Amino acid sequence: MSRSTVQESASYVYGIMPGDVEVDPEATGVGDPPAKIRLVRHGDIAALTSEIALDRPLGRPEDLFAHQRLLDEAAAEVPVLPLRFGAVVTDDEAVVEELLAPNHDAFRDALDDLEGRTEYIVKGRYVESVVIGEVLAENPEAARLRDDIRGKPEEATWDARIRLGELLGEGVAARRDADTEEIVGALAPLSAAVAVREPTHEQDAVHAAFLIETDRLEEFERAVEEFGERWAERVTVRLLGPLAPYDFVTTPYPEEG
């Protein structure tokens, strides 16, 4: 009578890379302690993986950070197709059979398209007092409501405060749309592709991803710096990257075996 065995570990997949690359033997990924990184190769491509224990939850902030860090560091050196956090399959054989083999040509072509290109994020955050002042200066109703509620109890001016909040929110959103259009319009000619992201904060002025060719990076950085200088009094502009190109690739998500 045979006895079934309980699987204790599986393969965690971070992303897809060219098959001729090598990984740093000291590189680590998710897990506690962090697991060693390995490559599972198939044809012209390879999966960046590590072993993961199945008896512990996956989802700690440290795991998410490790996933992103590893992919961003890889993207700074070679083309990489990132998988979203949490891609787990039975073992390395399943990595090949379920992910690499059926998608080999599509992955190879996508990696070829990314050769010499990396993602960067342009993030701008309004100086709150300045942008609110701009909205109030252009919206007489908002300015009147601001004056009406000044110094009065909150409970006596509840409706007016709600309306003022709506007007300020609409005004900031309109400015965000205009500022995003301006900076994206200026930076798009320096980029291979652009993806405008949703704001992550009510005071966001711009949040956009750009796929940048290596030989145009310095020119792109200068253009972002010029916007930062021009907008210095009203918007804090940051350039983040290089990053894995999450905004410009769609990678199939392997099912856990």
UniProtKB/TrEMBL annotation:
It is found in: Gas vesicle. Keywords: Gas vesicle. GO terms for cellular component: gas vesicle. GO terms for biological process: gas vesicle organization. The keyword GTP-binding does not apply. The keyword Metal-binding does not apply. Belongs to the gas vesicle GvpF/GvpL family. This is Gas vesicle protein GvpFL. The lineage of its organism: Bacteria, Bacillati, Actinomycetota, Actinomycetes, Streptosporangiales.
